[in-house]
Amino acid sequence: MSNSTAEGSYPADTNRQTEVPDAVVLPAETSGNAIVSSQLLEGRSSVTINHLGVAYILRATRAGKLILTK
After folding, report:
1. CATH level 2 (architecture), domain 44-70
2. pTM (2 d.p.)
3. Which long-range contacts (CB under 8 A, 24 or more apart) does 15-24 make?
4. Where are the domains of the chain?
């Protein structure tokens, strides 16, 4: 089964690794609270985040962008 988006279609279960561009250095005032996306994704292209009982999907695109959907 696949889903369609404005970027095209992608498999519903996307556990393939996605290349991500080099990290941007964060300003000192935000770097202490920052979580690197690769720590959340752990080599996957998407991860489900439960926030206040609602499931959200954080997905890394092939272009290296992040998309959060409900």
Report:
1. Ribbon (2.10)
2. 0.55
3. 15/44, 15/45, 16/45, 17/43, 17/44, 17/45, 18/45, 18/60, 18/61, 18/62, 18/64, 19/62, 19/64, 20/60, 20/64, 21/64
4. 44-70
